[in-house]
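Hi there,

I know you've been waiting on this one. I reran it after we fixed the sequence typo, so this is the corrected version. Both the input and the resulting structure follow.
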Amino acid sequence: MPAGTTALTKEQVSQYMNSNFKRNGVPIDNKYLDVSNYYKKDGLIISFWDFKIDTSYRVSLESIGAGILGLLKRNKDTVNLYRIIKINGVKFLEYEYQQDNEIFLRFQSDADAKNQNICGLIQCRKPDEKKGAKLFAGVIAKYAF
């Protein structure tokens, strides 16, 4: 993580999110995910987790992205970025959406040979969007399987 980043406990991130945001995009109490990577930097919340994919449900990032895009449009969220990129030989779905004055920058990798992928989120307020995008680009560029 970049200098000046503070690790948070599940309780700390929950309290911070409840005090500073209308919505919480960070998976805190998800029984399907083991999330223990929570960070804060300059008002930005950062979280990432790996996810084991059931081989019978393995689908392309393009299909996953189409479903996510449909859901965001149905919810009338503003989609600011949506793309699939390749970093260190791994495909990533990267998207940014906005709900009112809150920005959500998310990524999800394609599954590796062990059927695992990495997912992540940076959540911030609209005035911090450029700072969030810069941090997002730096964080995602460092991932490799």
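Quick highlight: Residues 54 and 61 are 15 Å apart (CA to CA).

Best,
R. S.
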